[in-house]
Amino acid sequence: MQSPWLTRRFPEGLPFEALPAHVDRLRAFPERAEQLLATIPPELRTLSDGRSWSLQREVGHLLDLEALGLRRLAELKSGAAELSPADMQNRRTYEARHDDVALEELLSAWRAERDQLVRELSELNAAAATRTALHPRLRQPMHAVDLAHFIAEHDEHHLARIEERLVRDHPELVHVADAREADLGAITAIFNAIIATSTAIYREEPFALEERRAWWQERVQRRYPVLVARRGAEVLGFSTFGDFRAAPGYRFTVEHSVHVAPGQRGAGIGERLVRALFPRAKLLGKHMMIAGTDSANAGSIRFHERLGFTRCAHLREVGFKHGRRLDLVFLQRAL
Ligand SMILES: CC(C)(COP(=O)(O)OP(=O)(O)OC[C@H]1O[C@@H](n2cnc3c(N)ncnc32)[C@H](O)[C@@H]1OP(=O)(O)O)[C@@H](O)C(=O)NCCC(=O)NCCS
């Protein structure tokens, strides 16, 4: 269980240079909420046990608070001494008919307001972004970068609540979420099973958990998603993308990977994991996605073609594994 929101402490005076990272993070939350709930039938999303909000109402709550975030940003811009307080009773969320509308409606309203927040944050210069006002509950100065971090942490808190509920209340349903540190053992095990038994990854040594932790941390720091498909708490597969090549001219092109645990293949999990990457890449301004797959991996080539990738290159004998030279096939898909 995560710690209660009201006991959370927040850093003061985050550097202006950190703003783009917080903006990227803020931009992704509506998409992350959609990705979490996409596979949950509407009647389960809107189900409430009377003690806690339904999964959909958790999303509605984030929409409800967007106006407060925008108001606080306007107050910072106009030089106010103190920010508006939040309604600690959350009346708006209790009274709204969030369970009577389609999830898509909530998400599109939230996206529209989030786009405005993100646009206004992105336009701030260093002087405007570091003008402070008092946060009424925390009794500490907060500027626009601190506010961006505060809102992102609040979103994260509610997405984590949704995930906890999915694991607890719907352990039979598959959901797609951003990987957490606790998933790294399972991710490493999936990598290592594929390394040991196939040429899908050009490597013979298994990965150590610590190495995968550093890899995951680097992706998170760059706001590149590492997604997992879970059934309850069990990780069934993962997908991610990184830079296609290092030179700056390739910055709009990413190369993804997707791997599903042996025994879980052919059930649509890989497709769900790759489809979830497309909007995340678009939110980061990416334009092209590349899949690199061993030429003998006919299943993976067919899988990618079905997802709209087209074969664009066949590189002969560029790989080597198990004493044999291997051909690499590239497929590409515009985002
Ligand atoms: C390729 C992979 C990610 C696809 O994920 P998946 O969840 O099995 O795929 P889905 O159920 O969404 O789609 C099924 C399609 O995947 C392909 N596929 C690839 N390997 C498969 C397998 N072992 N079993 C079933 N389908 C497989 C087939 O094209 C299948 O379509 P078909 O039923 O028309 O033949 C997954 O099979 C896997 O992890 N394989 C081993 C590692 C690998 O090759 N990774 C990709 C490297 S680029």
Description:
There is one protein chain. The protein is of the alpha+beta class. The chain folds into 2 domains: 13-170, Up-down Bundle (Four Helix Bundle (Hemerythrin (Met), subunit A)); 175-334, 3-Layer(aba) Sandwich (Aminopeptidase). Helix 1 runs antiparallel to helix 10. It is globular and about 70 Å long. Helices cover 45% and strands 19% of the residues. A 7-stranded mixed sheet has the order 3-4-5-6-7-9-8, sandwiched between helices. It has 11 helices and 9 strands. Coenzyme A (COA) binds at residues 194, 200, 258-260, 265-271, 291, 293, 297, 299-300, 302-303.
- Which ligands accompany this protein? coenzyme A
Spans of at least 5 consecutive residues whose pLDDT stays below 50 are: none
CATH architecture label name of the largest domain: 3-Layer(aba) Sandwich
Question: What portion of residues is helical?
Answer: 40-55%
Main beta sheet: strand number and arrangement?
A: 7 strands, mixed
Which structural class should the secondary elements be placed in? alpha+beta
Instruction: Report strand order across the widest sheet.
Output: 3-4-5-6-7-9-8
As a whole number of angstroms, the C-alpha radius of gyration is 22 Å
Give the H and E element order. Answer: HHHHHHEEHEHHEEEHEHEE
Assign an overall shape: globular
Query: Which CATH C-level class of the largest domain is it?
Result: Alpha Beta
Q: The CATH topology of the largest domain, please?
A: Aminopeptidase
Q: Count the helices. How many?
A: 11
